[in-house]
Automatic annotation (TrEMBL):
Top-level taxon of the source organism: Archaea
This protein's name: APC family permease
Domain Amino acid permease/ SLC12A: 20-452
InterPro entries according to UniProt: AA-permease/SLC12A_dom, APC_superfamily
Major place of residence: membrane
Keyword entries, A-Z: Membrane, Transmembrane, Transmembrane helix
Protein's membrane topology: Multi-pass membrane protein
Taxonomic path: Archaea, Methanobacteriati, Thermoplasmatota, Thermoplasmata, Thermoplasmatales
Chain segments annotated as transmembrane: 35-65, 101-124, 130-151, 160-181, 201-226, 238-263, 283-307, 342-366, 372-393, 405-427, 433-452
Key word DNA-binding present: no
GO cellular component, one term: membrane
Pfam families for this protein: AA_permease (PF00324)
BP terms from Gene Ontology: transmembrane transport
Length: 467
């Protein structure tokens, strides 16, 4: 089911190998940037149980990744989750899945690659926050860098992500182990339970909203199916290896920084400016602290590359195969083979969204709000793709009960629990907004798909009348 198109609307095939796929997955999570920013959002909710979240989340995501892994052996497409849902449930289900993926990736790029980067730089030097709107030119740094890299070619961009990703993994892993060693008798298993939040599992569920979001990007390599060498063999491996490469540094840092902060004062962890930076400087000194800062900044840049790769391929696919977006987005560069008009469109629209969100809420809170909406949309898109797996497998006559029915069913239960935890009990403003944003976007998508379907029927009817 590998689509092909002619002329200037064709992506470059056979560009990427296994390591490119692994670091597409790895960079879409951006562990160092997660440690600096998104772990703070998790800690705002889960406090002392934050390490529990960072153990539960990757295990749940591994169940989710079964969908990507199973489909990757049969469906190679730039449509990713949308192509999976379409393969099992039909075009309409595929279109709404793509519509949600488009929303999720756009907001994730805007919220994390741009606004969270600006928030991180702001928090490094709080004195500069007195300069009005300085965060606007700051967020241009990852925007311009990632746009230029992705425009010049998917292989070039992922070569850079792979080289710097190795360094990021080494720094985070070694640093976390040093901090854990220095903690000595303060090390504890208490943080791997729900006791710190008084066994309130609604809090654990809300914490999972950000924890699942942290690990969820490991499946993003599926959007590069048309540009991979032997995608039906390579993508599955890239998903698993990418997941492992992300799990180790993130889980170690979640534990080290939570315990290192001090459980008696943990309520201040989520509200402190750059707690990760504070602890790295505290435990590793200025040398270790500034290395961490450099790795975090580059992690944001790598994330911008990875999500730009997957997002622009989704725009390309929705314009080419679903007609939900304008056809000009299918144009590919004659030299680089990249969907350059989609790349330019992403840069312009994401900049507008980032500025508007930052003006309304400020860069840090604005990032949390739109990342929360992106997380819900991600879980919904994954639900549709997962639901389609048993239908596709049964129709293609390769159904295996465990991996095609049982694991997808368990995955859907966890997704339902995580989504329910975002809306009940209702979070305080503005974290109550993400659910409403996703509902509005979903309704708009359903209406658009219905209108396009009706327009198609009208055209067919007019043809019949004319003939």
């Amino acid at each position: 089911m590998k689509e092909t198109v002619k002329g200037s609307n064709k992506l470059k095939s056979n560009e990427l190998g296994l390591w490119h796929g692994i670091f597409q997955s790895f960079s879409h999570v951006a562990p160092a940037a997660e440690v600096a920013i998104l772990i703070t959002g998790t800690a705002l909710v889960a406090e002392g149980s934050t390490p529990l979240i960072f153990i539960l989340a990757p295990l749940i995501v591994l169940l989710w990744l079964n969908t990507n892994y199973q489909f990757s052996g049969y469906v190679a497409s730039s449509g990713g989750y949308s192509a999976f849902a379409r393969a099992g449930l039909g075009k309409s289900a595929g279109d709404i899945t793509g519509w949600l993926f488009f929303f999720n990736e756009f907001l994730t790029y805007t919220g994390f690659a741009l606004l969270s980067f600006a928030a991180f730089v702001y928090l490094l030097s709080p004195s500069i926050t007195s300069i009005p709107y300085l965060w606007v030119p700051i967020l241009l740094i990852p925007l311009v860098f990632s746009t230029a890299m992705v425009y010049r070619g998917v292989k070039l961009s992922l070569n850079y992500a792979a080289y710097t990703g190795f360094i990021e993994t080494a720094v985070l892993t070694i640093a976390a182990l040093i901090i854990i060693f220095k903690l000595g008798s303060s090390n504890t298993f208490y943080v791997f339970t729900a006791v710190p939040v008084h066994n309130d599992f609604s809090i654990i569920g809300l914490g999972l909203l950000f924890g699942l979001y942290s690990y969820g990007g490991t499946g993003s390599v599926v959007a590069l199916g048309e540009e991979m060498k032997e995608p039906k063999k390579v993508i599955g491996k890239a998903i698993i290896y990418g997941w492992l490469l992300v799990l180790i540094p993130l889980a170690l840092n979640a534990y080290a920084l939570t315990v290192g902060w001090g459980l008696s004062n943990i309520s201040s962890f989520g509200t402190s400016p750059d707690p990760g930076v504070i602890e790295y400087f505290s435990f590793l000194g200025p040398f270790g602290g500034w290395i961490f800062v450099a790795v975090v900044i580059n992690s944001f840049l790598d994330f911008g590359i990875a999500i730009n790769n997957s997002l622009t391929r989704m725009l390309y696919y929705l314009a080419r195969d679903s007609n939900l977006l304008p056809r000009f987005l299918t144009k590919t560069h004659p030299k680089y083979g990249t969907p350059y008009k989609a790349i330019i469109a992403v840069a312009i629209v994401s900049f507008i969204i980032a500025v508007v969100s930052g003006i309304i809420f400020g860069p840090f809170v604005g990032a949390l709000v739109i990342e929360g909406a992106a997380s819900i949309a991600f879980m919904l898109q994954h639900s549709l793709a997962t639901l389609s797996l048993p239908f596709y497998s049964r129709r293609e006559k390769h159904l295996k009960v465990t991996v095609h029915v049982v694991i997808p069913a368990i995955s859907l239960v966890f997704i339902a629990f995580a989504i329910l935890s975002t809306v009940y009990p209702i979070p305080a403003f503005p974290l109550n907004l993400p659910a409403y944003m996703v509902i509005a976007w979903t309704i708009a998508g359903v209406l658009l798909i219905a209108l396009l379907r009706q327009a198609g029927r009208d055209r067919e009817r007019n043809k019949d009348i004319a003939s």
